Amino acid sequence: MREFKDRNEWALILGGSSGLGLATAKKLAQHGLNICIVHRNPRLQQEAITREFEFIKQNGIQFKSFNCDAFKPEKRAEVINEFKLLLRDTDKIKTLVHSVAKGNLKPMVSDQNIELKNDDFALTIQAMGISLYDWFKSLFDANLFSKDARIISFTSEGNSKAWQNYAAVSAAKVTLEAITRNIALEFALHGIKANCIQAGVTDTASLRLIPGSDEIINRSEKRNPNKRLTTPEDVANVVYLLIKDEASWITGSIIPVDGGEHLS
Amino acid sequence: MREFKDRNEWALILGGSSGLGLATAKKLAQHGLNICIVHRNPRLQQEAITREFEFIKQNGIQFKSFNCDAFKPEKRAEVINEFKLLLRDTDKIKTLVHSVAKGNLKPMVSDQNIELKNDDFALTIQAMGISLYDWFKSLFDANLFSKDARIISFTSEGNSKAWQNYAAVSAAKVTLEAITRNIALEFALHGIKANCIQAGVTDTASLRLIPGSDEIINRSEKRNPNKRLTTPEDVANVVYLLIKDEASWITGSIIPVDGGEHLS
Amino acid sequence: MREFKDRNEWALILGGSSGLGLATAKKLAQHGLNICIVHRNPRLQQEAITREFEFIKQNGIQFKSFNCDAFKPEKRAEVINEFKLLLRDTDKIKTLVHSVAKGNLKPMVSDQNIELKNDDFALTIQAMGISLYDWFKSLFDANLFSKDARIISFTSEGNSKAWQNYAAVSAAKVTLEAITRNIALEFALHGIKANCIQAGVTDTASLRLIPGSDEIINRSEKRNPNKRLTTPEDVANVVYLLIKDEASWITGSIIPVDGGEHLS
Amino acid sequence: MREFKDRNEWALILGGSSGLGLATAKKLAQHGLNICIVHRNPRLQQEAITREFEFIKQNGIQFKSFNCDAFKPEKRAEVINEFKLLLRDTDKIKTLVHSVAKGNLKPMVSDQNIELKNDDFALTIQAMGISLYDWFKSLFDANLFSKDARIISFTSEGNSKAWQNYAAVSAAKVTLEAITRNIALEFALHGIKANCIQAGVTDTASLRLIPGSDEIINRSEKRNPNKRLTTPEDVANVVYLLIKDEASWITGSIIPVDGGEHLS
């Protein structure tokens, strides 16, 4: 059951203080992975987050968190340096999980609302897309990955559909997928496997920020063949499957985890 | 480790005497699933197959095999009836694995070889495609599936590519996928999850039957980012992942298991 | 405007007496193609159909129709033989258009309705899928295609989605697409181009046969970015584009013609 | 033949001085569209380009070119202002064609070469991706599009494949496609249709900049079912088809124009 215990392996989770990232941290800790969470939260939320982190620690694993702006290169360097100091000799990163939701949701054309601009694309693609490469490459260059490491990030059906207000996030998601494919190709012989999970509509804080999220939730419940939304735990479960030894031949793929939502 | 032990669950594997099917039987038996294999082999091969089956039985699980023509409705009915007699009260089928390779490989146009005809399509689609539905539906109607069952079949990149001589198999594979999607949709509320594994080029007896298989093997080794072919064990590993509890939200999907071969 | 006039080229349209096929016949006749329609209609509908055909003939083109069961090999042979007798020396087929809707719509599981069976798959795949190959190959073997011929058939979003009752048609559509890809590959050097048009939901007699078609129509009108259904003329327009000289480098493709319906 | 003559419609072509853009300008001018080309070339190339532009003008259409850095917002504003002054009362833009190739090709990991960095992604995505939105939106806000306008850009198989050194361009291409889908959705009721052409490997100056382009060319010639590369004229032909009235129901799509190259 606790198959990763005593293997000196870590999961580094970007955006691990809520939603898919937090659920992933919990699941992986249960299976014995040490957890490092990089997140960005205001002081007001710190107490609730600390409780979650304490819960994770009860699995008897190593735990470390960084509350900072993970998108700044110098912050990233600081975090990685500090993280390295924590590691014992044989410690390595088994999985980098990218669960970053920080996008600008605006209409391309509107009489009433602010319209989508170049910057909205650029910032969203940086935060939700290219940041995967930045973190992956920095950790790789620091020689921190295990010999059979797994890079996992989260995409959505917005990779092939068009939704009102969602253009910048859609572009970020497909960028994330393109980066994942090239990591899978170019680092295959370094033992890296990289995949995206295409999660169904999940009732998270990020979803609630989308204008009209109530309607999205309502429609998804009806549309999903299993007649419920995706939960963060559904997705965390598959992250766990993807880091198991048996998943080592899956790479460069986009795996729907949505109870069949993409079928309808 | 042996998580399916004592859960009174079976894997029914169509085409389980070689290739992906046999590797799957071995993997699932290791994890405690009881195994029922339906296969079709001439007497000449029986000895070698028996040795494989003995090996599987050493896992201390229930084992049953049927050597017959699984495509005939009356044979199917016989097998299912006989299988039912084996089952103890609470025994159920956890997974139906469809690993049937019986297709006609012919060119559409040729001066020298026999050309592809209507019958080649019809027979290949029946054997490699619709047979999934026939078996699934008969087992479902006999109330043999567990409350959380997994239907798994094998497809290939031929689902979106066109290869010389491969038209009938290609049509069978996409039919298999279409059936998988509709099973996922229509039986979701019956607890059924259905997925296809898109295996990379695997060096099996079936592959060796394809004219020009040497060149396919050679090209795939070069093309694969991991510089080797897919093995039956690579695929069996993912069948195992897909029947675990954690995979219950994956349904209606096509999952590449190919070391990234589809990327190039 | 009448670019195909005096080029001695024919369009042979399977299923040309209604819906997409009839609209295609009208459009292509306007541009000077001679028209041969193969259809299957009861005597009751003949009068209305004759009016449509008279309308087509007013374009001053050659016209021929066959009312018969196009799926029987011997009927196909008869039609082709009779058609050949019509042709002048230099006459060739520019385009074969496959617009056949003859599928069995049944649920996979139901307490009240007849459930989908093997035969439903087999018959639907034959009628809506493999028949493309049968006709194409017979016409090719009879040396009837022009040096730059276009094979066009109609698919739907059911090629990647799962809809209740639609499994057999879905399987037929993906079979049609697989056949199209292999024709594109294997006959490329014979000058053949083959493509599928993925039409949006179109209000035709075929659609009205689907249980729940009212709801489909209603939902499609809302969902379509252009807020209306696809018309047969929308699709016929693109058939016309695909037979123009400028489309000669498009082959093996699936082209959505749906006003963006697939985006949402 | 010259169907756009006297319709007071323009094609605005970004990157129209070479490759796909120039071929498009020539094709559309032949059919009577007025041409505005925005390009960026050093003085050394100006003479050759001028000859090409003179050739285009011989079609008796309006012609204007701007040699400037089209990616700078202030330059874009200048160009648009100057272009507006050219227009007669009823002149409108029928099509915006985005043919911009300005990407950074680097390996993600290398001992010898400079490795891909954040900036390479950011700049390439800006130049080859987001610039489509910037230009489209500026022209839309300036009310310059006709009531039935067509936005066309060029993508490649790199939208789903991973190629060595190509990660940044791949990300830019999928961004372009995501933007195209959202334009198709959000501007449908403004009469805008937006599509991408997925061109096969084309022997252009841009291709020659890719390390190993000889091998790409060699492999593509073999792999293509039609045994030749794609030409700029092949692609220009389909741009022409996509701006015709008959294409008005095609939107939000990616259309392969590659002689079937994507099939193999």
UniProtKB/TrEMBL annotation, chains A, B, C, D:
Keywords: Oxidoreductase
Protein's UniProt keywords contain Transcription: no
InterPro entries: NAD(P)-bd_dom_sf, SDR_DHRS6-like, SDR_fam
Keyword Oxidoreductase among UniProt keywords: yes
UniProt record similarity statement: Belongs to the short-chain dehydrogenases/reductases (SDR) family.
Protein name as annotated: SDR family oxidoreductase
Organism (species): Winogradskyella alexanderae
